[in-house]
Amino acid sequence: MIHPVLLCGGSGARLWPLSRKSLPKQFSRFQAGDTLFQASIRRLTGPDFAPPLVVTANDFRFIVMEQLGALGVTPAGVLIEPDPRNTAPAILAAALWLQSHDPNALMLVAPSDHLIPDGDGFRAVVASAVDTAMQGRMVTFGIQPEWAETGYGWLELAAAPDDLGPQAQPLLRFVEKPDATTASTMLEAGNYLWNAGIFLSTVDTLIEAFQVHAPVMLEAVRAAVAEAAPDLDFIRLSPEPWSSLEADSLDYAVMEKADNLSVVPYAGRWTDLGDWEAVRREAGPDHRGVSIQGAALALDCADSLLRSEPGGPRLVGLGLTDVIAVAMPDAVLVMDRSRAQEVRRAVSALRSEGAAEAETFPREHRPWGSYDSLASEERFRVRRLVVNPGAALSLQSHARRTEHWIVVEGRARVTIDAVVTHIEVNQSICIPFGAVHRLENPGAAPLVLIEVQTGDYFEEDDTVRYDRPPG
Questions:
Q1: Do 469 and 393 form a contact (C-beta atoms < 8 A)?
Q2: Does residue 272 contact residue 278 with C-beta atoms inside 8 Å?
Q3: pTM for this one?
Q4: I want to staple 224 with a disulfide (CB 3.0 to 4.6 A). Which of 237, 256, 315, 419 is the partner?
Q5: DSSP alpha helix (H) spans, 330-451
């Protein structure tokens, strides 16, 4: 049985404004249907796979459970990192947690933000590597390169393979993201693959590698796992030992130093969707190289991407060449296509100005559902709340604001100072200053309401919670 470990703690800044710190690209939809995270879960589901173990950040825990629930998937566990420390500590924590539940576990570690359309083909390649991994090798998966990419790491094989069938081969070395000349040389040589950041190993093999090459990290992560505490449906790694860790990638900490590495080539379609140019390619450009997504229109354009997200403005391009334009409800990115790798500069500039759009969306996810901020002024705020079926907000009160709720979909149960009222579509209710209240959705469909807050202070510390929602 293969135990999938999904890593989903990254920020994906190169795909701003769709991907942000508060909701990175793995939880977004770049095509119709599943998010990248959900597609990764589906790809690693089947008779040979155990339920997935997810490693994520505190801010993403509820969206993880929401997206798993939409697939009907119950995870083996969701590990919450106290703060990001790159991939090595996260993967090691997963290995130690799995070892405590199954000492002979075989783990497949994968990022949750890659696009691999052929799930059956990928699972077949993984299956071909099982025997090699069970023999004590750490198996990484390399992608057949299609062009001289400078945004990926590369893997050097001992020799150019006769074919790119799924046979394990010795891995000579890792190559960091190259310059254009080096990438072209490697592409022509034929014995290099792109590094997909996916690998297969037994937990014992991986932990032993950390014991040899990163023993200080192993000690701290072992303590963080041993002292982990359950919290609802999550496992919170202990923050004190975790705080002593240096941030490090798995490649740097272990893989580049190990001598028991093998690589299995994968010749199917793969992309990490690392920038907007990758999105343009995957969207299927027309005969002029133009990709259109959402409410966008291109007139006399070439080699460009025009994308408008739901709720965003109508986006029209006229006479554009080599342009990427992405419109969100609260932000628009327009850039030369050749500078797709530089979006982080824009995010850094916005962050230095204190712009909320650099990191956060108008939508916030909560255990009971989500809310969108629609307007905010000195004396009022307007939000759109969506409460999941059967969910409830905590029992709470506010000293410095009133709340007015108008139901637009569904049926709400509202408790105000022990008085319970049901309100239907087009009905409203007012929550006075200081009233102890709770909002619940007793129905089988989402509850949608508009909330208008009025007062002189709207921050979180004006909320007094008396208990948590049932369940």
A1: yes
A2: yes
A3: 0.85
A4: 237
A5: 343-352
CB 161 within 8 A of CB 149: no
Find out whether 256 and 270 touch, Cβ atoms under 8 Å.
no
User: Per the structure block, which two tokens stand in for 216?
Assistant: 């200080």
Q: Treating both helix axes as pointing N-terminal to C-terminal, what angle do 215-226 and 203-213 enclose, rounded to 10 degrees?
A: 130
Query: Phi/psi of residue 59, each to 5°?
Result: -65, -20
Picking from 309, 310, 313, 303, the residue whose alpha carbon sits closest to that of residue 277 is: 303
Dihedral angle, C-alpha 199, 201, 203, 205, nearest 10 °: -120
Region 166-181: what's the mean pLDDT? Answer: 90
How many other C-beta atoms are found inside a 10 Å radius of the C-beta of residue 230? 9
3-state secondary structure of 282: helix
Confidence of residue 31 (pLDDT cuts 50, 70, 90): confident
- Beta strands 395-398; 419-423: pairing state: unpaired
Are 159 and 188 within 8 A, CB to CB? no
Q: CA 399 to CA 393: how far, in whole Å?
A: 18
The amino acid that residue 283 corresponds to is A
Per-residue pLDDT band at 227 (split at 50, 70, 90) = very high
Characterize the bridge pairing of strands 401-409 and 395-398.
unpaired
For residue 464 the two structure tokens come to 């007094």
Mean pLDDT of 228-243: 95
Helices (H) and strands (E) in the chain, counts: 12, 28
* Contact call for residues 292 and 298 (beta carbons, < 8 A): yes
- pLDDT tens column, 43-78: 999 999 999 999 999 989 989 998 999 999 999 999
Q: What is the pLDDT of residues 35-44, one digit of tens each?
A: 999 999 999 9
Task: Tell which residue, 178, 182, 123, has the closest CA to residue 153.
Answer: 178
The beta strands (E) that lie in 192-240 are given as 192-202, 229-231, 234-236
Written as six digits, the tokens of 200 are 């297969």
- The set of residues, in sequence order, having a beta carbon less than 8 Å from that of 284 and lying 6+ positions away, is 291
Domains of the chain (ranges plus CATH)?
Answer: 2-266 (3.90.550.10), 284-352 (no CATH), 363-467 (2.60.120.10)
Q: Which residues contact 406 (CB under 8 A, 6 or more apart)?
A: 426, 427, 428, 449, 450, 452
- For the chain, the straight-line distance linking the first and the last C-alpha, in angstroms and rounded, comes to 32
Q: Which of 234, 202, 228 shows the shortest CA–CA distance to 75?
A: 234
**Could you tell me which residues come within 8 angstroms of residue 397 by beta carbon, excluding any fewer than 6 positions away?**
434, 435, 436, 437, 463, 464, 466
Q: Is the pLDDT of residue 9 over 90?
A: no
pLDDT value, residue 468: 57
For 10-20, the pLDDT digits (tens) are 777 899 999 99
Length of the chain: 471
